[in-house]
Design brief:
Elements: H1 2-8, H2 23-31, H3 37-41, E1 47-50, E2 54-55, E3 66-72, E4 77-80, E5 86-94, E6 97-104, E7 118-123, E8 126-128, E9 131-135, E10 138-141, E11 151-154, H4 163-177, H5 187-192, H6 198-206, H7 211-237, H8 254-259, H9 266-279, E12 286-291, H10 298-310, E13 314-318, H11 322-338, E14 343-346, H12 352-363, E15 373-376, E16 390-396, H13 403-412, E17 417-422, H14 428-435, E18 439-443, E19 454-459, H15 463-475, E20 479-483, E21 496-497, H16 499-505, H17 518-528, E22 534-537, H18 543-554, E23 560-563, E24 576-581, H19 589-596, E25 607-612, H20 620-631, H21 635-646, H22 649-652, H23 677-693, H24 701-711
Helix pairs in contact: 6-7, 7-13, 7-23, 9-10, 14-23
This protein binds adenosine-5'-diphosphate and magnesium ion (MG).
């Protein structure tokens, strides 16, 4: 065993190398996505018990736990019960009162509490008449001159694993790894940015000795997340400026324009001109088209794809969700078949036989039989999807894809032209991080006749009126989206503090309104509107089922669609006229802006209603944020505002539903917690400088190793 430790233990060792962790516990850890020692250490607390919240007995919290500092007044007495049970009781006091303290089956504690000793007790203080009582509180010996740590980690748990067990295993993993791990970050960078060592950070994020150490630890870990992300992003987009891309000089998009019921806007024309110029070169295009929701990016993609196929090349379009892929397919396959080109859909739900047929058609050597356009999800990245004549790859809603997927896309299509479309306006300071060296075409003009979506922020007291408004919209022929936050998020208890609370507001608590759980909500609505068709959509549903619901909504078979944010990206149902967002205070402004963009896409006058809990309970900050939405309609302004208010986390997250965030890889664990932009900017600057000097990171083997570990996690490729 000793030999094994010295030679083989690394952060990639399985958790079973820890004493006491057998198959059974490893299986529980697997449920939390924890397989290795490294995963275990990266299982950062979801919140902290605020043991620094020291109060007098008389002022103890009534809604949860807090700490009291008490002097033991009576000798602990143990009382035996039948069946070998017992309890221990004693009294302790502070300046405001006296408290009875009880422990069960812990007789050995008797000698721990001599009369006159002082302890910090943490737990729930019960009030019994004029007296107080605590049952089984955490007790820590208190002395005037050595302060006790104020925060104690609370972990995301799963059945079969207690928080204490997790804490113990994490500590054991750290003990094993700390002596053998070197800090992968060069010391110059650490000094330049005032960062602590990785070891200090890992120790103090789990068991902070004080507030300052926790801040220092978090800063380092967030920096690392950003730094890795920036390195990954820069390496992803480092496309060979080499020649060797298919020149697509003979493009004529008039056949496409003839199919459109509208004229292109000038901004669309400019973007298409940029694309046409890029594609005519033998250096692969790396361009991103950014434009607010509804500005008409799809037609720019269609034009680029048409240019590719006119030049005997193939074009692929990759969307982040099946719903979106299907929607693109419906629109584009109609256009391409009208122009005489073949077009297929390849998604996870495509049958195996169909997939085989499509793969064969893509790889077909005979240009007459070859499939020309394929639209899909990241299923397009799976093994066996090979293009005989790759010309163009378009990705829609780019930053929703995982970094690994993007890297793979680039790898697989090293010489193809690449066009990225993003509907999420990105603040300038983040553009470099997210888009690296991509060239930008900005569509800054909306198609004519677009109306503004009137926006309201209301609280629960408007519920009745809101229901009547829903009825009115539907009776006039409109349709309604209702969006609730994702349900799976684990909530911090009122007596716990999360990192974002610690860093945004000090240790002050902000009241959080109860979540409207989407499932229950849809049920309730059915009783409110027994005569209306109500559909329900969430990220965990099977894709076939999602599609069925979405189709039903698109065809107005259902009038109300309750969903989590899976509908956020790109979905187009022009008849929808009302967007209701529940628990709106939970969303970022850019997210709200995206959601609002789902309505007002047709001729109907449209509305967006942001519903919050009783406004009195919300912080001033949250209210101010929502007020912004009533007056600001420009995505870029909103994005900048969001960045200053919430930090960059929302822009960096890799999944529409938040689901990918926890699956390892380049998910952000800490950076979401109200991280600051300056740290991101610093990390990006450092990453680019490092790569400029040493593109393969040869001088930084530890860092390279670390990146390999981070990037090797496959984020959900579907085969
Ligand atoms: P997004 O940029 O959000 O992807 P879409 O490409 O889905 O936007 O376009 C939104 C809607 O606007 C579609 O119904 C599309 O047909 C329409 N549209 C696009 N360009 C124009 C235009 N120049 N004039 C009028 N309608 C347009
Ligand atoms: Mg779109």
């Amino acid at each position: 065993m000793a030999d094994l430790r010295n030679e083989q233990i690394t952060e990639r060792s399985p958790v079973t190398v820890l004493g006491g962790v057998g198959k059974a516990r490893a299986a529980y850890y697997a449920k939390l996505g924890i397989f290795t020692l490294g995963d275990l250490i990266a299982h950062y607390p979801r919140a902290y018990e605020n043991r620094g919240d020291v109060r007098l007995l008389a002022d103890a919290r009534t809604d949860g736990k807090c700490a009291v500092i008490l002097t033991v007044a009576t000798e602990p007495k143990s009382v035996r019960l039948r069946s070998h049970k017992s309890f221990l009781k004693f009294r302790a006091f502070d300046d405001s009162g006296s408290c009875e303290i009880t422990y069960f089956n812990q007789d050995y504690l008797k000698s721990r509490f001599p009369v006159g000793s002082v302890y910090r007790f943490f737990g729930k203080v019960e009030r019994v008449g004029k007296r107080y009582a605590m049952t089984a509180p955490v007790a820590e010996a208190w002395t005037e001159h050595t302060p006790l740590p104020p925060f104690c980690a609370v972990y995301r748990m799963t059945e079969g694993l207690s928080g204490a067990q997790i804490a113990k295993d994490i500590a054991a993993a750290r003990m094993l790894l700390e002596p053998i791990s070197e800090d992968p970050l060069p010391i110059e960078l650490r000094e330049k940015r005032g960062l602590c060592t990785r070891a200090f950070a890992e120790r103090n994020i789990h068991s902070p000795v004080d507030y300052h150490s926790l801040c220092t630890a978090r800063k380092r870990l967030v920096y690392d997340e950003f730094f890795h992300f920036a390195l990954g992003a820069a390496m992803t987009y480092k496309r060979a400026k080499a020649h060797g891309a298919p020149t697509c000089e003979n493009g004529d998009i008039t056949p496409l324009l003839r199919l459109l019921p509208y004229r292109l806007t000038r901004a669309q024309e400019r973007a298409i001109a940029d694309i046409r110029r890029d594609m005519a070169c033998d250096v692969p295009m790396s361009r991103i088209v950014v434009g607010d929701v509804g500005c008409g990016k799809t037609v720019c993609a269609a034009a680029a794809m048409l240019i590719a196929v006119q030049n005997g090349r193939q074009a692929a379009l990759m969307a982040p969700t099946e719903i979106l892929a299907r929607q693109h397919y419906e629109e584009l396959s109609a256009q391409f078949s009208a122009m005489g080109y073949s077009c297929e859909l390849l998604i996870g739900a495509t049958t195996a036989a169909q997939k085989r047929r499509i793969k064969a058609a893509l790889a077909e050597q005979d240009p007459q039989k070859r499939l020309q356009v394929v639209i899909g999800t990241h299923a397009l990245l799976s093994d066996g999807v090979e293009f005989a004549a790759p010309g163009l790859v378009v990705t829609d809603e780019q930053h929703r894809f995982g970094a690994r997927q993007r890297a793979r896309l680039s790898e697989k299509n090293a010489h193809a032209h690449l066009l990225v479309m993003s509907a999420t306006p990105i603040p300038r300071s983040l553009a470099l991080v997210l888009y690296g060296d991509l060239e930008l075409s900005k569509i800054d003009e909306m198609p004519p006749g677009r109306q503004r979506v009137d926006t309201f922020a209301v609280d629960e007291s408007y519920r009745e009126r809101l229901n009547r408004f829903i009825e009115k919209q539907v009776s006039e022929g409109g349709q309604v989206y209702i969006v609730c936050p994702a349900v799976e998020e684990e909530e911090a208890a009122p007596d716990e503090v999360t990192l974002s609370q610690i860093f945004e507001d000090g240790v002050k608590q902000e009241v959080r309104a109860p979540l409207k759980a989407a499932v229950q909500y849809a049920k309730d609505l059915e009783s409110v509107f027994p005569n209306l068709g109500i559909g329900f959509l969430h990220g965990r549903m099977k894709s076939a089922e999602k599609d069925r619901v979405m189709q039903a909504f698109a065809q107005n078979e259902i009038q109300i669609l309750v969903s989590t944010t899976v509908i956020e990206v790109g979905v187009n149902v022009p008849n929808a006229s009302l967007m209701i967002v529940e628990n709106a205070e939970r969303f970022g402004l850019s997210q709200l802006h995206q959601l609002r963009g789902r309505v007002g896409r047709g001729s109907r006058k449209s509305y967006c209603v942001l519903v919050t809990a009783d406004t009195g309970a919300l912080g001033e900050k949250s209210l101010a944020r929502l007020r912004t939405m009533r007056t600001v309609y420009d995505g870029y302004t909103i994005a900048e505002e969001d960045l200053t208010q919430r930090g960059p986390g929302d822009f960096l997250s890799t999944s529409a539903d938040g689901a990918v965030r926890q699956s390892g890889g380049l998910s952000f664990r800490l950076a979401d917690a109200g991280a600051d932009v300056s740290l991101l900017t610093a990390a990006t600057e450092d990453a680019r400088a490092m790569l400029a000097e040493d593109a393969a990171l040869n001088a930084y083997p530890l860092l390279k190793n670390r990146l390999d570990a981070v990037f090797s996690v496959e984020d959900g490729l579907i085969s």
